[in-house]
Automatic annotation (TrEMBL):
PANTHER family: COA-BINDING DOMAIN-CONTAINING PROTEIN, CYTOPLASMIC PROTEIN-RELATED. Residues 14-113 form the CoA-binding domain. It comes from the Bacteria. This is CoA-binding protein. Pfam families: CoA_binding_2. It comes from Paracoccus marinaquae.
Amino acid sequence: MDLDLEDDEDIARIVRETRVIAMVGLSPNEQRPSWGVARYLQAQGYRVIPVNPGHAGSTILGEGVYGHLAEIPSEAGVQMVDIFRRPEAVGTIVDEALAHLPDLKVVWMQLGVRDEAAAGRARARGMTVIQDRCPKIEFPRHLHGS
């Protein structure tokens, strides 16, 4: 099956089934792409939990910021991790997500971010993995009518 078509089917399912997203690397700066993506997702009804060690304890877009994925209470029900970090940071983030987020179903890496080894580990644990894509670009095609 064509990878893009497969990704498209996965993305349509993610749009329908996901409600809580932990965004690693979410910036409080409104000029940063991560802030714009988080704001868009919130406007579509998703809960976006910010993860950024430099801003832990503060608030971004009305949500308390966690320093690490492991600090998010399991009751939060995080189903997707959206990674706004450099590719070299992805492996550690994915391993932490797999170890500490019991409801996790999706690992999403933003545009320009790929880590095949981390993606393989996540898939081996039953996760859907999307790499080098942005939900703000992908979700609108599936939000209405899918």
